[in-house]
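Hello forum,

I keep getting stuck at the same step: I have a sequence, I want structure tokens, and every attempt I make locally crashes halfway through. Rather than fight my setup again tonight, could one of you with a working pipeline run this one for me? It's a single chain of 371 residues.
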Amino acid sequence: MSEEVVIIGNSFSGLGTAIACAKHGYKVKIIAPKNHTRFIGGLQIAPNGLGALSSLDVEQEILDSAVKLLAVNIKAFDTAVSLSNIPLSSKKAPYVSIARQDLYEILLNKCLTNKLVRFMDARVLAISIKNNRTRLALDTREIITAPIILGADGWNGKTRQFICPSASQQSSGYSIYRGIFQASKMPASFSYPDVQLWLGNSCHLVSYPIQNNQAVNFVFAFSDSAFTSHSIDTIFCDHPVLSMLGVYSQNWHLTPIRQFDLLSNWRRGGVTLIGDAAHPMPPHLAQGAGQSFMDVASIENGLRKGLSLSESIYDMITIRMPEAHSVSRKSQISGNIFRMNGPFSDLRNQLISIAGQKIISDFLQDLWLTV
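Reply #2:
Ran it on my machine without issues. Output:
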């Protein structure tokens, strides 16, 4: 193929799309600043996400760096009492965790070693359409045009603003702390190949091992209105089991979470959104990266069937938009359940203790297999 594809952003979805396009003979130019910030924390890759990544021929490299997770262990935050245990992985459909940086480097190296993929150290300042051609103005003073441009620059990037200038974002009313800790400094139970989900009053904590069980990734989500102090050491200082998490306050990174409109259009002119730029995910079902990988796999599937890249992108939008919107809504609902307060949080825990295994197992299998 002589046609060159321009990808804005070197995110997971950007690198993955570059690999998929190059696999089918397309030349790819990735526009992104060279000094990329290191990724913080880990992520979970459910069976649907791992299946999507297999289309890029990186599945084995990921499995070599990942931890295979066996179950979700749900606990009451205040008492540490186990409420339910839901099996995750099987031989046919593994569920894994991996450091974000490790996954990024696997995808980046795949691109760097492909002669059809080249990187342009630049930032997009503006996007416009002139004479039916989409133009990118770069901070290098260059103007780039291309028939196919993919926006993989995230929820706050130029491409999302270009596609839908009126799309809004607002405070969600909750924030998250992310942190990575050496496994040797944590109780041994945190190194088990499980996802631990601690459900509390207006908050929840998620943990799982990464880096071949050498580290543990923690995510603590809490309603802003319920915690007068956002200091992590204050939050955990009196906890009977988790007090050690507050000791290493320097390990934590606080992020206020935004709430986004669901876009009814992912395309304008020659630009198509993909990944987080198209569908930012609430961080409650571990589907943010997985849904991005499914966008990429949808494009690769079309190319494998013999469709043109334009046709494959059109099919991706048609198939993926309703699926991604559905997952986003499910994730938002899950977050609301996780952060219930008062008597409702007690009732939630009681229901999970009684019937949680079947309800949650059915919900997860439906999520992974139907999207």
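The chain has a mean pLDDT of 89. If your local run keeps crashing, start a new thread with the error log.
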